[in-house]
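Table S2 (text version). Query chain:
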Amino acid sequence: MLKFIKGNLENIDNVQIYPLISLMIFFVFFVLLFYWVITAKKEHIAEVSNIPLEDDTNNQNEKLL
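Corresponding structure-token output:
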């Protein structure tokens, strides 16, 4: 199976750049995500973390209407 993939990839010019591009996208995404987590407001994090614990009466009332 791997030799079929390897054979096809050897025919593409400059194929060695694609793993570097994907690594850079992966790295930049997680650096930005880490930055967002560090700079997020504590109030927002507390509000979002309490969402699963909130009462669902508003949603149930809307479904009945």
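Notes on Table S2: Helices lie at 2-10, 17-39, 42-49, 57-64. The chain has one domain: 2-64.
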